[in-house]
Amino acid sequence: MTNKDLLTNRIQKMKDLDWGNLPFGYIKTNYNVRCYYRDGKWGEIEVCSDEYIRMHMAAACLHYGQEGFEGLKAYRCPDGKIRLFRPDANAERLQQTAHGICMAPVPTDLFIEMCEKVVRLNQEWIPTYESGATLYLRPLLIGTSAQVGVSPSKDYMFLIFVTPVGPYFKGGFQSNPYAITRDFDRSAPLGTGKYKVGGNYAASLLAHTIAHDKGYASEFYLDAKEKKYIDECGAANFFGIKNNTYITPKSTSILPSITNRSLMQIAEDLGLKVERRPIAEEELETFEEAGACGTAAVISPISYIDDLDTGKRYNFGAEPGPISRKLYETLRGIQYGTIEDKHGWTRVVIE
């Protein structure tokens, strides 16, 4: 059988969905994979078709927030291959999260093996290349020991489920407005902001709801200590472009985005200077382009940022800027195998 026949056969087995109009939401797929940490060691990988988790009502994750998660994507590429993007970086970040809240870390080899396994088990749910949709992987690590006192769990469960998703923001790669909030903090400078834990997102829900109700795509945080420096765009990292320079905030309360790390490298590859440093709010008016970046949206260009307290508006244009577009197209090209992966970021799961 030729490669073309194999590709045709694989596409014929795909689920009959409207791939081009998928929401960024949950759709049930065939299988998830799980692994349990007991007696000081990780067990064997288990394949499960159940969407539900059976756990004790006193589990540490339910009462004391001992949980961390990741997000990454699998791509159906025009050459017929299925690729993951930087799963080793996600494994590393989950290990940092585990260390930060006293959980058992998931070894990199186990993390990647489970990512590849769950993709292979659900390959008919991977959207078509032409649709622009992807298969989203959600690794989740939770403390499962039954306890009432505040202490780290002894037992853990690590699972990965997958779901096909469309663009995070309706309309995909287009500019969106944001609103600066001073009434809420996403995280504290010496808190858990640099870890990917659910509590950080819970802390953002009210601010996000208020911003959304006012017509903004998301809220925009300043630093918790001084309310002077840029922190994050909702759940995403911020970057600004000026004078052929890619500038992104440096802060102990910001999640280290794998997408942002990749964009910084791509910016250097394209001949831009890269700066990671504190950015005062007033510097916003000097940027030619601005954007939010993360796994879900890749890049969400920012049209304007309103400071609701002062009435100040920082404009960056109704359409995505040329450098933001070039960064977006280059990263997407690497993820889909249409641009050379000179840094070895992608991993072929299915030939």
Q: What would you note in describing this structure?
A:
The protein has helices spanning 3-12, 60-64, 87-100, 108-121, 198-202, 205-213, 258-269, 322-335; strands at 32-38, 41-42, 46-48, 67-69, 72-76, 82-85, 134-143, 156-165, 176-181, 218-222, 230-233, 237-242, 245-248, 273-276, 289-294, 298-307, 313-315, 346-350. It has two domains: 3-166, Aminotransferase class 4, branched-chain amino acid transferase, N-terminal domain (D-amino Acid Aminotransferase, Chain A, domain 1, 2-Layer Sandwich); 176-335, D-amino Acid Aminotransferase, subunit A, domain 2 (D-amino Acid Aminotransferase, Chain A, domain 2). The protein is globular. It is of the alpha+beta class and 351 residues long. Strands 1, 2, 3, 4, 5, 6, 7, 8 and 18 form a nine-stranded antiparallel beta sheet that branches. Strands 9, 10, 11, 12, 13, 14, 15, 16 and 17 form a nine-stranded mixed beta sheet that branches. The protein is built from eight helices and 18 strands.
List keywords for this structure.
alpha+beta, about 350 residues, D-amino Acid Aminotransferase, Chain A, domain 2, 8 helices, nine-stranded mixed beta sheet, single chain, D-amino Acid Aminotransferase, Chain A, domain 1, nine-stranded antiparallel beta sheet
